[in-house]
Amino acid sequence: SMALETKKFGSRIIYEQSMTSTQAIAHNKAQEGAPEGTVIICEEQTAGRGRMMREWKSMKGKGIWMSVILRPEIAPYEAPQFTLVAAVALTKAIADMTGVQPEIKWPNDLLIDGKKCTGILTELQADPDRVNAIIMGIGINVNHQPNDFEGEIKDIATSLKIASGKHIDRATLVAKILYYLEIYSSQYIKEGFEPIKSQWESFSCTIGNRIRATTLQEVFIGKAIGITNDGVLQLQLDDGTIKGIYSADITLEK
Ligand code: BTN
Fold first, then answer.
1. Tens of pLDDT along 200-221?
2. Closest atom, ligand 1, to C-alpha of 63
């Protein structure tokens, strides 16, 4: 059962059986002036989307498919930090509910047993110098059975149920997510990224490892040594130079 313990987040909830994409609806609502903390959530998405123009499979009744409208007073370049703030909030909520601690794969995947259970899609509505809204899209595979994953995600996806052996009440998990999102985003606004960054690094499976980062233009291989206060991944290349990675797909290298 759902009991919200938040001040703002979830004070407005738009819920429907089926939507094209909660992200698309949230963009419209934000444009129309929906307040901070408005949640768009559905049972099934017919056109769910992931990062880099990918499709996001959103099976009916199995997962959490939601978008949260945030209205922080930050500059556009700070927006990627919110992905990391959300990753920490989601990690805490999932660990509380399942007893299983996910790992964060930079920038926005949550993995359990090396497989993806959660994706985050942070999108911006902004003028050049001002953020109008952040649309925080969250997709969590919750009660999927192994057979529910087909095609290209078959071997790389997992669900909280598969990982923990327990059926997870989605409404309770949503309430926990909103609780932690509210706590960490207000901490971020008050204290900056530093305190959250150390939590992020402790949950991360990226930092300290040799990785391959595939950006739209190039491939870089090196050791992930940290993230900056702006959320930029720091990669130490084999010649010793440090390369800042803003957006990429990463995989572990042997
Ligand atoms: C990724 O890992 O590529 C991000 C996936 C984000 C999926 C969520 S589900 C709710 C929201 N609506 C969408 O269409 N996408 C996000």
1. 999 999 999 999 999 988 999 9
2. 9
